[in-house]
Amino acid sequence: MANSKLYKGSLVTIILKLLNESNKMYGYEITQKVKELTRGELKITEGALYPALHKLEAEGLLEVEVKKVDNRLRKYYKLTEKGNKETVSKLQELQEYIKTMQVLVNPKLSLE
């Protein structure tokens, strides 16, 4: 994606949606899933991802489970009940935003 600033406002929604679809994921796994789903168009950096994950955890939307994998500790992130509710809200918000942008970018299509 040429302008990565556009996705920054959607980062939390992206994280919540991925965790909603999976039981739990670790940070690197999230970055790779986004890269895979977008065919490399969108790359989430660790510098953007981990502060967002920590913020979501502090807000009570995520819980963390630490497991030892290959002699390393790995943090898995999982949605809380509050996180599941927030995911629904964020996805509705994003859909409304997309509709509004479509009206602005291509008003002829929005006359339906």
UniProtKB/TrEMBL annotation:
Protein name as it appears in the record: PadR family transcriptional regulator
Coiled-coil annotated residue ranges, if any: none
Boundaries of every Transcription regulator PadR N-terminal domain copy: 15-86
Pfam family name, one: PadR
Gene3D superfamilies, A to Z: Winged helix-like DNA-binding domain superfamily/Winged helix DNA-binding domain (1.10.10.10)
Transmembrane feature ranges: none
Higher taxonomy: Bacteria, Pseudomonadati, Bacteroidota, Flavobacteriia, Flavobacteriales
